[in-house]
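Sequence only, no structure available. Ideas?
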Amino acid sequence: MTIDTNHTGPLAGLKVLDLSIALTGPYAAALLADQGAEVVKVERPGIGDIARWVGVAVNGMSAFYLACNRGKRCISVDLSSDEGQAIVLQLAAEADVVLQNFRPGVIDRLGLGYDAVRAVNPDVVYASISGYGPVGPYRDRSAYDTSIQAYAGFAATQAEPGGGPPTFIRQNAADKVSALYACQAITAALFARASGRGGQHLELGMADACVSFLWAEAAGNEVLLDADGSMPSSFNAGFSPMRFLDGWGIVVPTTDADFAGMCKALDVEGWDDPRIRTVGERRKNREVLEPIMDMCYAMASNLTQADAIVRFERERVAFAMVLSAAEMVDDPHAIAIEMFEEFDHPVVGRARLPRHPTQFHGTPASLGGNAPALGQHTDEVLTELGLGDRLEQLRAAGTIA
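Reply:
I predicted one. Tokens follow.
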């Protein structure tokens, strides 16, 4: 897989300048690259984006960096120098989108904030991502995924009902949720610009994004202020995995048909008791429901996953077996839909990534190319800017690497 210069995606021709680091901003920009945007990533000389060094790595490039920086070109520029700032400002003048995720105020001190960029590019869509947003008493706090999970309610929601300790999602869920909100906001702003309403500054706090995400269905008592509080705020709170003879799975008996189908599949009687036949009755008669559910879990423990799959599919029950990432790549559905792409990367060797999840049938999206080595495209991009005759001078001064 190589950099695709003949983009077919819906954002073909769009120029994105990615000043962000770690996960939230880079992942958002990678998704834009999948959709056809031409993304130039700016990294500091020497160490580059810290994500290059986090987690599983081969030859100095991590899986984390590879996944979040696919399809980009990378230049290595010292943003603390006047000349480095001038180079990046020149790039920003030609960009449709500029994306950064420094703490509030940092990018302005570097001379690359929204006002500075707008002065040379009035129609720019400029996206600023930070932990807690640009105002408020927490604006200057350092923010990492886990701290945002704590603040926004993820950890509390993951706790066992009845007062269990807060539990963190063991992945950077807050970062990725925020990246998805950022992508949607950027494309919405681009639509507004195409409609004649000009460019604009987008400011997104990770905390805002994650609270919005959580409250869609996991803060019922906080949304309905006149609720009696008798039910958990999250209607998913009571779902627990089933233990089979050879693994784990989950059944989600939300509808009456799902509940009846689960009981039938597991040879559990009593599901047609009028006191629990409907979702409304099950909600009122927990003392009748709980022994039935206990029996379902007990019966499941006598089945293999394969046996359970046959039974659940026969009853058309909403279910899934618990898969690890390693198991997912060999799953027959994932194989059938070509969920993953394998390729050779010049730094890490063999690699595998999931394809872009949305299938654009008119303007196909694709993984746009390899994640770049640090500074791999510095000379190329600066030559395009008309600075080709100054490369040696800039490198000798430490402005570029």
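The chain has two domains: 15-214+333-396, 242-321.
Hope that gets you unstuck.
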